[in-house]
Amino acid sequence: MTSANFPECLSITLQSEGGLSLERTDPGNWTGGRIGKGTLKGTKYGISAAAFPNLDIRNLTLDDVKPIYKAKYWDEIGGDALPPGFDLATFDYAVNSGPARALRDAQSVIGAPADGKPGPLTRAKAATAGTREIKALCARRLSFMHGLAIWKTYGKGWSARVAKIEAKAVAMYLRVQPGVDVKAALADEASKAEKTAGTLQKAGAAIAVSASGGAGTGAALPAEVNLLVLGGVMVLGLVVAGALVVKAVRAKERAKAYRSAEMAIGQ
């Protein structure tokens, strides 16, 4: 729990934040926070026109954005008082979706009142946050993002980013735990995610085949009703199968992120 973590957390977050983006379909690029509202100033180094409508986004430098990240995101989540790893997970979430939302989800995970303010009870509850809380926070973050209207456009990149942050945050937490073989622990996390992905993929495929085959439709029903029931069963089965496939993809991304974090140890 130290401000010394801020530079490392910022460096990791900035790896996911590119140069200038003027994508018109991104609400964050508009000063009004909605597509077509205000001026299209864009986003640079993660600093968006929606959040900072009065800044000259195009001409921002890294030296310009560091104090912004410190004051507007790190300090707003009480980053100095959060444990290593949990601070990264909360900070990166804050940069994407705002510090109040990120902190509320972090507070929910650790059992503190979800008021979006880094008070003494939040600091006390956060003191014991570890890998379980990091994973839970990342899952909440991804769930929130999945509900956004622009998920179809940005979802793939967001999902990969959250997986990467989870793995790096877990590695950050583990490396300060006495007697822990960080590389082995990350390898174990990757293996578990790979196994989960395989199980979900097989289950999804089996359900899809069953739904397409139309098993168990109730032959005693009138023909027209029977067809409706059959159609409903098929649709429901395919929806469930699709959801499992999505979860399998998410598990694969987590496995890939943990493998990458494992390989980075000792480099």
TrEMBL record:
<protein>
    <submittedName>
        <fullName>Lysozyme family protein</fullName>
    </submittedName>
</protein>
<keyword id="KW-0472">Membrane</keyword>
<dbReference type="Pfam" id="PF05838">
    <property type="entry name" value="Glyco_hydro_108"/>
</dbReference>
<dbReference type="InterPro" id="IPR008565">
    <property type="entry name" value="TtsA-like_GH18_dom"/>
</dbReference>
<feature type="transmembrane region" description="Helical">
    <location>
        <begin position="227"/>
        <end position="249"/>
    </location>
</feature>
<feature type="domain" description="TtsA-like Glycoside hydrolase family 108">
    <location>
        <begin position="12"/>
        <end position="98"/>
    </location>
</feature>
<dbReference type="InterPro" id="IPR023346">
    <property type="entry name" value="Lysozyme-like_dom_sf"/>
</dbReference>
<keyword id="KW-0812">Transmembrane</keyword>
<keyword id="KW-1133">Transmembrane helix</keyword>
